Amino acid sequence: MDPRVRIFRNDHASGAASARNKGVELASGEIIFFLDDDDEMLEAYCRHILDNSWLGSRVRWGFSSILICSGVDKSNLVLKERRRISAGRVSATRRVRDRIAGMGEGFWINKDLFLEVGALDPRQTIDEDTDLCMRLMGLGSAPWYGSAPGVVVYRGYRTGHPDSAQLTSSTPLLRGLECYRRTYEKNAKLFPGFSAERWFLGTRFINRAVKQRQPDMVKDFLEQVEPVTLRHALNLFFKLKELVHQIKRAG
User: Fold this and answer.
1) Domain count along the chain
2) 4-40 in b/e burial notation, b at 16+ Cβ within 10 A?
3) Distance CA 30, CA 10 (A)
4) Last-in-domain residue among 100, 127, 155
5) Which of 113, 175, 235, 241 is the S-S candidate for 210 at Cβ 3.0 to 4.6 Å?
6) How many CA atoms lie within 13 A of 32 on its CB side?
7) What are phi and psi of 106, to 5 degrees?
């Protein structure tokens, strides 16, 4: 094995976010790359990031396009790009969703910045990546997007063991909604009252709750939303989404 590789065993199962935080704590390098255990980093990706001159104070985190593999057959890889943004630094004027990336999208970050922003929230069974990205935005830190793929992401495979299911799909319904709500409540205060960021976080929680038929959770959430103008707007969004889903279910 390469002598530069160090393996640490986590004897206390405390979730993906805690495991990643522990890995960052133990890492000796300046740049951290995240990789899920069921994905594959492309050979030249890390070197490509480390060798580029734009690293430094101007850009301190980023992500890439990915290759999607359905099942385990790598003969039919599909490139998934961010079509609304170009390679390079992603401006704060871009849509909020264009500035958010999952841990499996070739995500890399300066270790000091990761620690400065508070690392990953161990309470977040899912949605820890959006929570982290929103906090980075709150600091005014813009990401770098690489159009060349950095990771092969495997989807649609079967492990044969229930404990190996992907977290997003295996997380209990209500716990997942709690994570989405927590992402809103933690980060809304980082942005102005009726901002694109608050609207994005509010509507994504409502969308998920409506799809999972949890209207009471939405109503409870809306009671806490400030300012009032945002609350009214989100309430209208909620009613529209409920109507659309009722029509779909009836049809």
Assistant:
1) 2
2) eeeeeeeeeeebbbbbbbeebeeeeeebbbbbbeebe
3) 22
4) 155
5) 241
6) 19
7) 60, 30
Dump pLDDT digits (tens) for 193-237. 999 999 999 999 999 999 999 999 999 999 999 999 999 999 999
Residue with tokens 């992401």: 153
Read off the pLDDT of residues 80-120 as tens digits, 9 standing for 90 and up: 999 999 999 999 999 999 999 999 999 999 999 999 999 99
Looking at the structure, tell me whether residues 131 and 47 fall in a common domain. Answer: yes
Same domain? For 133 and 213 the reply is no
Residue partners of 119: CB distance under 8 A and separation at least 6: 21, 24
Full residue range of the structural domain in which residue 203 is found = 172-250
Closest CA to 185 of 141, 135, 229: 135
Q: Mapping DSSP to helix (H, G, I), strand (E, B) and coil, where does residue 102 land?
A: coil
Which one, of 201, 199, 173, 174, lies nearest residue 186 by Cα?
201
Q: How are the residues of the chain apportioned to helix, strand and coil, as percentages rounded to the nearest 5?
A: 45, 15, 40
- First-to-last alpha carbon distance for the chain, in angstroms, is 58
Per-residue model confidence as pLDDT tens digits over 35-57: 998 899 999 999 999 988 666 66
Query: What phi and psi values does residue 17 have, to the nearest 5 degrees?
Result: -65, -45
Task: Give CA torsion, residues 47, 50, 53, 54, to 10 deg.
Answer: 120
